[in-house]
Write a structure and sequence with these properties.
The complex is a heterodimer of chains A (about 120) and B (about 210). Chain A has about 120 residues and is an alpha+beta fold. Chain A has a domain of about 70 residues: OB fold (Dihydrolipoamide Acetyltransferase, E2P). In chain A, about 15% of the residues lie in helices and about 40% in strands. A 5-stranded mixed beta barrel of chain A has the order 1-2-3-7-6. The radius of gyration of chain A is 21 Å and the shape is globular. Chain B has a domain of about 110 residues: Cytochrome Bc1 Complex, Chain D, domain 2 (Orthogonal Bundle), CATH 1.10.760. Chain B has 10 helices and 1 strand; from the N terminus they run ααααααααααβ. The longest helix of chain B is centred in the first third of the chain and has 27 residues. Chain B is flat, with a radius of gyration of 22 Å. Classes of the chains: A alpha+beta (about 120), B mainly alpha (about 210). At the A-B interface, β1, β6 and β7 of A face α5, α9, α10 and β1 of B.
């Protein structure tokens, strides 16, 4: 009886972990190569093309402020947080982007007494 | 005799209905991704409404008259730290936890939540809702709980939440060191920094 209970508990633990492993978000990072009103194609940092669908609920963010899909241009850098549907297609939850011409931010050492946080 | 027949018919009908429901449950399984049926939602919400005492429903939020920007900011921070894991910073419920609960975390910006009275929202925050993922957050030893009342204020604010607010709240969400490191990497990339090495350029996150 104890063995059966143990097996049941192990089975519950394993199935719980398996279920958790499929509910997350995909993070797509790269450069926009194509845009339609409903999709964004990104050349990822690994040089692979990935197309993400845009939904009515997708939020566009530029410089931490609300933006529109019309603001997004080919060549822009994007970080897309997307949800994979049962059809394995990605739908964007948030699309954060910066203009293609953005230069690396120069990080200066913090002044004395200044917190790194 | 007629009464006996009617009673038997009613019992048989209920048994057939229960049998059909059981078969549908078994066929569907007990996963949490299938949305509850309309009947189940109606029954659950009715039961929840009945379970909240009348006196609690009538309670007024003592913080409504004191809702300064500072109070709202404190409530927003509390929400980001305690509630957003399931309900999301904007109250949409669109998080990994919220999407996969049964029932899913509701979109609290919509009428189903917003039409609840302040007292009902406060009662739900303090006592939770059985058979859902909503825990009771209140201390039963306390008569009044200012933080919960302030959260009610923030729930009323949810339909007006801006993207800028939501972005600011991200800094207050509970995160692992790995999450923070990745966020920093993403921001550096957006600012023109080097692309991090990833096998596919697409990363899966829990």
């Amino acid at each position: 009886m104890k063995a059966r209970t143990l097996i049941l508990l192990i089975w519950i633990a394993l199935t719980t972990v398996a279920a958790m492993a499929h509910g997350g978000e995909e993070h797509v990072m790269g450069t926009v190569t194509a845009l339609t009103g409903k999709t964004i194609t990104v050349k990822t940092t690994a040089k692979a093309p990935v197309t993400v669908n845009v939904a009515g609920t997708t939020k566009f963010i530029r410089n931490k402020a609300a933006a529109k899909i019309a603001d997004l241009k080919i060549g822009d850098r994007v970080v897309i947080h997307a949800i994979e549907g049962e059809d394995e297609k990605l739908t964007a939850d948030t699309v954060e982007f910066a203009a293609a011409a953005a230069k690396p931010a120069h990080s200066s050492p913090p002044a004395a007494g200044q917190s790194k946080n | 005799m007629k009464l006996w027949k009617a009673g038997s018919l009613a019992i048989v009908t209920v048994l057939i209905g229960a049998g059909a429901y059981s078969v549908s449950l078994v066929r569907r399984g007990f996963d949490t991704r299938t949305p509850p049926s309309r009947l189940e939602v109606t029954l659950a919400r009715t039961m929840r409404d009945l379970a909240i005492p009348y006196k609690a429903k009538q309670e007024k939020n003592p913080w409504t008259a004191k809702a300064t920007p500072e109070v709202l900011e404190a409530a927003r921070a509390h929400w980001a730290d305690h509630c957003a894991t399931c309900h999301a910073n904007d109250g949409s419920g669109n998080t990994e936890m919220g999407r996969n609960l049964y029932p899913k975390a509701p979109d609290m910006r919509l009428a189903a939540t917003q039409k609840l009275s302040d007292g009902e929202l406060y009662y739900i925050i303090r006592n939770g809702v059985r058979l859902t993922g909503m825990p009771g957050w209140g201390d039963p030893k306390l008569d009044q709980d200012d933080e919960s009342w302030q959260l009610v204020l923030f729930i009323r604010h949810l339909p007006k939440t801006t993207t800028e607010e939501v972005e600011a709240m991200k800094a207050l969400n509970p995160k692992t060191e790995a999450d923070r490191a990745e966020e920093q990497q993403e921001q550096e990339f957006l600012n023109g920094g080097e692309a991090p090495a990833q096998p596919s350029g697409v990363e899966h996150h829990h």
